[in-house]
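debug: dumping io for the single-chain case to check the tokenizer round-trip. Nothing else runs in this session.
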Amino acid sequence: MTSPGKIELREVTSPGKLAPNEILLKIKRIGVCGSDIHVYHGEHPFTPYPVVQGHEYSATVEAVGSVVTKVNPGDYATARPQLVCGECRPCRRGDYNVCESLRVQGFQAPGCAQDYFVVPEERIIPFPKKMTFEQGAMIEPASVGAHSTSRVSDLKNKNVVVFGAGTIGNMVAQFVQARGAKKVLITDLSEFRLEKAKACGILNTSNAKNEEFPIAIKRVFGDEGFQVAIEAVGVEPTITAAVKHIEKGGEIIILGVFGFPPKIDLSVVCEHEIKLIGSMMYKHEDYKEAVKLISTGKIKTEPLVTRHFPLEHYDEAYKFIDAQGEKTMKVMIDL
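debug: decoded output
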């Protein structure tokens, strides 16, 4: 992407000789996410142009360096897109997902929208061949769900509200159920997305256009209320609703990307001892957990794939997403 809205396809030379710890991947599927759309419209504040996009993907292993042991040629794999320094305090304590110098492939570094892509062994994530390439490309967004739900102290037997039924909110709700929550309610303004949530096993839904939030809480949870909320939208009305209605002492995970700083009643946060907890991307173990739960069928991805486009029509994928609006979940690029 040379500038907002302008994509060029170029012939490039094949990667050269691999370093001992490097792996050559042949890309098969690339998922388009909301952040990619922001780059397309010139609305991503941390992405310079030109940039090769793509950060959620599946591939086959084409070749491996001399010391690589985790994968072999022919295996199926993906990899974390995070480039970290390994030296700052967050990195040294194991929180490399919030590295002080974090760069993400597809945004601040070249991404995977190319036939061949080289990654180091430390970021490789193999997945079983019983999984499809579409499922493999969904490991990245599923890992966001794995990480954000791990930020809660304990989900077992708790009632949970997930704000937002897009791909990420859907994955979050599925992980909440997989971690043993008592009841899960997912809210959105799109009936299409809520139907996709039901197709993935999230039975309790509420369309905020048609049902006020307190009524939805009462309908689903009765007098028990909810103890955990996960905000996966990034707008003021949802975070204020979470603060206003969550049980005292509850936990709110902030996952959505806010375009504008929201006004939150911090007096309620203080007096109710509500915990506000941020969640940023994922770690390696989140990828592994996503592979495990997708491969065993506990996390469903098939209902979320809306349409496929070939690499040569990358720009048509963006135009399709813009035109379809709320009736699009995950668009795949095929190589």
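debug: round-trip ok. Residues 80 and 284 are 7 Å apart (CA to CA).
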